[in-house]
Write a structure and sequence with these properties.
The protein is built from 1 helix and 6 strands. It is mainly beta.
């Protein structure tokens, strides 16, 4: 899988802080997809926002595979976790 990522740091985290991390996949019609994550402190404050664009690559042909959504769906035990 290839991925480009951007992180926006909003609040400081310290060692030992409890956090909640969310992960949401956003599927389009093309060869790429987005992954959005939020890291929240225990009080609900957003500490970090992470957004990435990914795709699945055929390593022999060096090209992105069509319909990555289907490639994730096939082996997934719980497709809903991937937004499928």
């Amino acid at each position: 899988m290839t991925q480009a990522c951007q992180a926006r740091y909003r609040r400081e985290l310290l060692a030992g802080d409890e956090v909640e991390v969310t992960c949401a996949f956003e599927w389009g019609e093309g060869k790429t997809f987005r992954i959005r994550q939020l890291i929240r402190k225990a009080d609900g404050t957003v500490a970090t926002e992470v957004e990435g664009v990914g795709g699945l690559m055929d390593l022999r042909e060096r090209k992105l595979l069509a319909d990555p959504r289907q490639r994730f769906r096939e082996p997934a035990r719980e497709p809903g976790l991937f937004g499928l």
